[in-house]
Amino acid sequence: MKILHIDSSIMGGNSISRQLSKAIVERIEADHDEFETIYHDLASDPVRHLSGELFAAQASAPEHRTADQQRDIDHGAKMLNDFLASDIVVIGAPMYNFSVPSQLKAWIDRIAVAGKTFRYTEKGPEGLAGGKKVVIVSSRGGFYGPDTPAAPLDHQEPYLRAVFGFLGITDIEYIRAEGVAMGPDQRQSALDGAMNTIASQCEKAKANRQAVA
């Protein structure tokens, strides 16, 4: 079992998404005798945003690249390879200004690579990264569910669902903590509710594995 754990919150120890993504990974690890976990903190070790300079460097021979360009290329390649090698991807994805953190978007730009995780065919695009499970920890300051007035402003979860679906991943699970900016009581209630969801989902997955075994 190979687990890829991604955090993107800039809030450090005060981050709800970090607390929840850690809890999920610990649960998964506890349920498997053999596992390897790779962790990337996109806030403390960010992936650079795509640039024309990077595209030009990638198209050039290695001897024509600067050391800085080569480090950037190598960093992006590691992010892609870690993603491709994983069985389960756990992503801490807080909502920032109605969408995902720019750090997370930069990581997505490095894993959405034609010929690696998707390809274009005569019948349209085809995802090449299927077979994985993606667990997304979605934390939001307000309420953006489909039955709320703010639902049209949600460009976070629909975007992530579209991206990973485009890459061929259909097994996507959300753990939500909403309204975390609406007072300490609601913050704690959202955290407790998400933790309970994690516990119940992990127990359900464990029971399903035992039934199959």
TrEMBL record:
Q: Which UniProt keywords apply?
A: Flavoprotein, FMN, NAD, Oxidoreductase
Q: What is its EC number?
A: 1.6.5.-, 1.7.1.17
Residues covered by the Flavodoxin-like fold domain: 1-200
Presence of the UniProt keyword Cell wall biogenesis/degradation in the record: no
Q: Which residues bind FMN?
A: S9, S15, I16, S17, M95, Y96, N97, F98, S139, R140, G141, G142
Q: Which cofactor does it need?
A: FMN
Q: Which InterPro entries match?
A: Flavodoxin_fold, Flavoprotein-like_sf, FMN-dep_NADH:Q_OxRdtase_AzoR1, NADH:quinone_OxRdtase_FMN_depd
The record's free-text note on cofactor binding: Binds 1 FMN per subunit.
One example of the protein's molecular function in GO is:
oxidoreductase activity, acting on NAD(P)H, quinone or similar compound as acceptor
Q: Which reaction does it catalyse?
A: 2 a quinone + NADH + H(+) = 2 a 1,4-benzosemiquinone + NAD(+); N,N-dimethyl-1,4-phenylenediamine + anthranilate + 2 NAD(+) = 2-(4-dimethylaminophenyl)diazenylbenzoate + 2 NADH + 2 H(+)
Q: Does the keyword NAD apply?
A: yes
Per its UniProt record, what Pfam families does this chain match? Flavodoxin_2
What PANTHER family does the entry give?
A: FMN-DEPENDENT NADH-AZOREDUCTASE 1, FMN-DEPENDENT NADH:QUINONE OXIDOREDUCTASE
The entry assigns this protein to a family as follows:
Belongs to the azoreductase type 1 family.
Q: How does it assemble?
A: Homodimer.
Q: What biological function has been recorded for the protein in this entry? A: Quinone reductase that provides resistance to thiol-specific stress caused by electrophilic quinones. Also exhibits azoreductase activity. Catalyzes the reductive cleavage of the azo bond in aromatic azo compounds to the corresponding amines.
- The name under which this protein is listed is FMN dependent NADH:quinone oxidoreductase
The organism encoding this protein is Micavibrio aeruginosavorus (strain ARL-13)
